[in-house]
Write a structure and sequence with these properties.
By secondary structure, this protein is α+β, with helices and mostly antiparallel strands. It has one domain: Outer membrane efflux proteins (OEP), CATH 1.20.1600. The chain contains 10 helices and 4 strands; from the N terminus they run H-H-H-H-H-E-E-H-H-H-E-E-H-H. The longest helix has 69 residues.
């Protein structure tokens, strides 16, 4: 497994323009941090898990597994039964013949069946634990995606707000110069169009923020987003076995245990019965008491055993095939997630350079426009170029953070 060294991916070159951008990039969740400074992604995952029906029923499921283990370790494979019978000749000869019998019968373990039942109960308990961990990983993936979707929406909203402020300031400047006769009416109209477009972008961005926050709240029950994402995975933090692979392994264990049990239980459990008999031959005779012992041994038949053994064997074959496919799928997802992270870092570096150039050009054109040396359309194009470059950079930063979360998810790490 490739070792990753935890490091920040959101650092930018130590230049004034890029440093200013960092402040704008984190403004999306500054208010959240003020109200929920201690909220982490791990706490969000725990909150989401606690709302799941599976989590609420987990205690009862574990009690069920414990009851199965206790049953497999009990003295008898089933519950004892009690019988009571009476024989009389009152309705025919009526000579006073009477017989009363009370009996208790208990099933017995056949050789090997008790250990097979215990092994199956233990395998099913392991499957329950593995399934719970796999479900927690699934919920963690949903929380991660919902969190980053909300972060992307907040980033677009903050950029739209800043673009609206800049468009409003530009409109004021153009209106002043138009009233003074320095600019044409067409320039004034273009500035107004740019300001209206910025308002529309802000409204759309705010709606996306609202939707993403509602979805996150519905999943976790939290009204605030976590303060930050998560670091790169460390080899020491990796689980001994991937949770999704663990559940496939336990499915194989259950299949093997079920096949072993079906092979060991080739007949129904035999029964040992102990009876107390009280009888007399005729009226006036003294009652005789006796004890009766009986053993009931069911026979083994092909019609009983073959369906159970073949069904257990088919289940085992399916579980083993699923294990192989799951191992390959997990490996492919991990390799893809690593490649996506490397690509996200490369894209971020390109976006940083693009933003630096677009910002420098925009500042030059803004200065030239203020001095009357540049027309408004060129100024607006430079503003749009810088806005698009800034949006690309901040999204590249968030994409790199999301790539880390997806890599952690692919490696089976739960926050």
């Amino acid at each position: 497994m490739r070792r990753f060294i935890s490091s920040s991916i959101s650092s930018l070159p130590c230049k004034l323009a890029v440093a200013a951008l960092v402040g704008g990039a984190i403004a999306a969740h500054a208010s959240n941090a003020a109200h929920a400074a201690s909220l982490t992604l791990k706490e969000a995952v725990e909150a989401a898990w606690s709302r799941q029906p599976e989590a609420r029923a987990l205690h009862a499921r574990r009690d069920e597994a414990a009851a199965r283990r206790d049953a497999a370790s009990s003295l008898f494979p089933g519950a004892p039964s009690i019988g009571l019978s009476q024989r009389t000749d009152r309705f025919n000869q009526n000579r006073g013949e009477r017989e009363t019998e009370a009996e208790i019968a208990v099933p017995l373990w056949m050789p090997g069946t008790r250990s097979a039942a215990r092994r199956l109960a233990e395998a099913e308990t392991g499957q329950l634990d593995a399934g719970t961990l796999a479900s927690r990983l699934k919920i963690a993936g949903e929380v991660r995606e919902a969190y980053w979707q909300a972060r992307f929406a907040q980033n677009d909203r903050d950029l739209a707000l800043r673009k609206l402020r800049e468009a409003s300031l530009l409109l004021e400047d153009v209106e002043r110069r138009f009233n003074a006769g320095d600019l044409a009416r067409a320039d004034f109209n273009q500035a107004r169009v740019a300001e209206r477009l910025a308002q529309a972008l802000k409204a759309e961005a705010e709606m996306r923020v609202l939707r993403s926050q509602k979805l996150f709240a519905a999943l976790t029950g939290l009204s605030q987003l976590p303060e930050a994402g998560e670091p790169l995975p460390d080899a020491r933090q990796l689980p001994a076995i991937h949770p999704l692979l663990a559940i496939s392994n336990t499915a194989v264990d259950v299949g093997q245990a079920r096949l072993a049990q079906a092979s060991a239980e080739r007949r129904d459990p035999p029964e040992l019965a102990v009876g107390f008999v009280r009888e007399r031959a005729a009226a006036g005779d003294a009652y005789d008491n006796s004890v009766r012992l009986a053993v009931r041994i069911p026979l083994s038949t092909q019609s009983r055993n073959a369906p159970r053994i073949t069904a257990a064997n088919a289940e085992l074959i399916e579980a083993e095939a699923s294990l192989l496919l799951e191992r390959e799928r997990i490996q492919a997802e991990a390799e893809t997630a690593r490649a996506e992270f490397e690509q996200a870092k490369a894209v971020q570096a390109l976006a940083e350079e693009r933003y630096r150039l677009a910002s420098d050009t925009q500042e030059l054109y803004a200065k030239a426009f203020r001095l009357g040396e540049l027309d408004l359309p060129t100024r607006l194009r430079s503003e749009n170029d810088r806005y698009e470059a800034e949006q690309a950079l901040t999204r590249a930063q968030l994409e790199a953070g999301r790539a880390i979360s997806r890599l952690n998810q692919a490696l089976g790490l739960i926050p």
